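From the shared-data thread, chain only:
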Amino acid sequence: MAEDHGSSRHMSSMSMSHKELGDDDARVVHVGDAERTNERLQFAGNAVRTAKYSPLTFLPRNLFEQFHRLAYVYFLVIAVLNQLPQLAVFGRGASVMPLAFVLAVTAVKDAYEDWRRHRSDRAENNRLAAVLSPGAGAQFVPTEWKHVRVGDVVRVGANESPPADMVLLATSDTTGVAYVQTLNLDGESNLKTRYAKQETLTTPLEHLAGAVVRCERPNRNIYGFQANLELQGEGRRIPLGPSNIVLRGCDLKNTSWAVGVVVYAGRETKAMLNNAGTPTKRSRLETHMNRETLFLSGILIVLCSAVATLSGVWLRTHQTDLELAQFFHKKDYLKVGKEDNENYNYYGIAAQIVFNFLMAVIVFQIMIPISLYISMELVRLGQAYFMIRDAKLYDASSDSRFQCRALNINEDLGQVKCVFSDKTGTLTQNKMEFRCASIDGVDYSDVAPQRPVAWQRASRLGCQRCR
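Structure, as tokens:
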């Protein structure tokens, strides 16, 4: 079924690539002339950005994402209520410091993760590619990836990745074939063939300066491509399809070199168009805690409503005694010489019920402890440190340690319920190791062969292969 789906997918891509391409909808790329290509329409540069924040947007966006946790909203409400003189139960600073601390710890953690993304983006954009420079005697000169533009002719070596989506013009093979691995795009490790047209393969690169590629607008379909090539001095247009383009993110394999012209660069490449951005990952424990916060908030509202209701009943019952009550002092008797003394610390029964409800919220706030979230953030940082420094998680072949890229989902590590795979090779890497075989009672395993006993000389055949 997987093969049928894959074949139908490629057939649909081929049929789409053979549709007629209108000149109004086409992108015009002049081979080897980036200045002329970008003269009328300034296409996107080749610099990519996968980081989530910038120095200007970090604080508001990070706070917005942090307050998706319902408990943080609850603690913020408690801190705001405690700033009002009529409701203050604890010190004003004491109610703000725990929330500020947990927000600061999470912000530092998120800033460190995004700093690593910025560092990775800089390393990617500063990689070097061989770009054909007409001003240097038609020689390939090293150029940073972020400076590659649409229309540039790029040379890619073996086991290298193209800096952008490019149409093949020539390869090291005399037939124009090139082998690429699309593991980073679709997860398939098998090699795929790409071809350069014979018309460009037999033409020197300096003679392709007047060629024009008309291709479709950037889209996310990595299996489809629709374009045509028009050589200088020839009226006919050579059709181009998905087998003639090498996408950014592929690796050139079993081919010494390949030369192509850039048609999509930067954020317009198919790989970046399929990149949905850095998601906000939330662990199952955090989702469960959000549900528990809602449940406890409901209980809190019921308790505070009961307290407020009973306080209203008491106020109405003792309404005539409030002038002498110790904690109400309905009249301010300290103001001597005034017949109509103003009310002191009393705002009416309705207002007192509201105040008592809000004060009960502050008193019962320990039902949702902020110390739990502080402990969780500190434990996550400690877990990440010990996982990174664990010597048993070190790979000597690649000289790399364990990398904790998302510090807020540590608790989900190893909690795998189901594994779906379309083929066994995805899990076993198509590596099979012979373990043992028993034929006619003789054990042909890795140990020394054993002679069968008489009663075992029956005609039996058993094979076992273990991955």
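Residues 1-18, 452-467 have pLDDT under 50 and may be disordered.
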